Amino acid sequence: MVFDLRAYMAQQAELINDWLERLLEDFAPRPVKLRDSMAYSLFAGGKRLRPILLLAAAEAVANQEVAKEQLLPAACALECLHTYSLIHDDLPAMDDDDWRRGKATNHKVFGEGMAVLAGDALLTLCFEILSQKLDGFAAEQVLRVIAEVARAAGGQGMVGGQAADILWEKERYQHEDPNRLLLYIHEHKTGALLVASVRAGAILAGAQPAQLAALTDYAYAIGLAFQITDDLLDIYGDSQKLGKQTGQDESRGKLTYPAIHGISESRRRVQELIRQAQVSLTPFGPEAEPLRALASFLAERDI
Amino acid sequence: MVFDLRAYMAQQAELINDWLERLLEDFAPRPVKLRDSMAYSLFAGGKRLRPILLLAAAEAVANQEVAKEQLLPAACALECLHTYSLIHDDLPAMDDDDWRRGKATNHKVFGEGMAVLAGDALLTLCFEILSQKLDGFAAEQVLRVIAEVARAAGGQGMVGGQAADILWEKERYQHEDPNRLLLYIHEHKTGALLVASVRAGAILAGAQPAQLAALTDYAYAIGLAFQITDDLLDIYGDSQKLGKQTGQDESRGKLTYPAIHGISESRRRVQELIRQAQVSLTPFGPEAEPLRALASFLAERDI
SS in 3 state form for A21-67? Predict the structure, then answer.
């Protein structure tokens, strides 16, 4: 029987969307315009990859009896964090993007000031959710998840990656070895949060150290594959499907994997990373099927 | 014997500065320019009011044996949070300030993109520190502090207050009762974080519910007094001492306490709030002397 990833993702996304709405109502950011600005980007058609990874990693481990309802707040917290990063990345002072997923970016609709604040509020909301809504877990476990997420999001993680990215783009900074710099940007800007999503799910499901290490390898590999695929889609993707202009990386002289290594090497590297990810999952049984299917999906996606 | 607040504040500030440097080194944000941008604003001459309040509140309670070294990371986390809010508030899309405490604001030195990221990294660093550096406390206690701080910082707290503030300034939004709106802005934009600082210190020192309630009243009163004094200083203050241009609130038509209630009523209200704050401390003994002196200081400060 082939695992139906499309149905799985749709089902998970529906649950995640329900919970995101519920959490936004619970935490009730004010004034209304701030809430609207947060909701606009939260419900702008994201694939919910990070929360889905969290849930799938917990499913793969499942050493501890954990209901999905207990995991969903943590899953949603990671989507809040991801959404904040998109809002801030799109700002004129950063990547200056007007479109994302076929919709005007947050600052185009709500203005730059409100977009900065909506991002700030979503980043904070992530920690509000993690510290208040993880019912039924030991406080030590929750603290560990908060530490994982904060580390992945901060100056040694996602923000550090984004800073290196804009510095390269604007100043060709330090003339560092572009290959190493690109790896640094990929690992931090996108990779760190994908790894944290998988690890958070595993920790909440009571993963043993060996399981956690295997899942970390998995997440690291799919994180890189995801980013290289993103770079390839900017060259070959259907701008209609992607909901944004393609070819932007090249016109900006952005540091990308295809720009350094060429198209066919990039494709080969994606396949290799996906194979590595699958190998990392060898110790797991059929309960890791969603993670396996997600890895293949990332290599073949066209959105 | 009169309590020497100036010496106390100087001594605490020195400790806090040492710990801030140590923590910045520990968490080592990268690239260097991101770290420099964070350090620039962290060490731009702040009074360290929030961390000092946290330490003083813990001192007032002291039900639990807690060494100052255990409290200092939490104190510094609140300063990181405060510094992030200043960097983002100063951005052109928000208050558009070029000067703060006699120094060029972050985005004037590092550019807008890096200023947004330095703020994001400092906000995240707050939660990195709280989740990783609060040694010797029960995990439940640490989680409670994280929840307090996140709530005070988010869309129902500081960010909500700032959003209401810029909406009023830019759009005279919703034509709400200005008096109520001003109270909302004051309570959220500045008040929430001062309250969280005091409460975090109290929680870490093992405060009983009655003690926590009394200290919350205290913090709420000094928070409002602080903000009204800030508004008065913008009218009467010495721009040299303040390190920024005065008279800006009026020229922007900003909603301030003196603008609505007049100068003498504002001064009366500050004195009344300080009295309230002192009354809240009645249950405490001499170990609350720093908190008492801090309340008076806030009413008389000229910086």
Answer: HHHHHHHCCCCHHHHHHHHHHHCCCCCCHHHHHHHHHHHHHCCCCCC
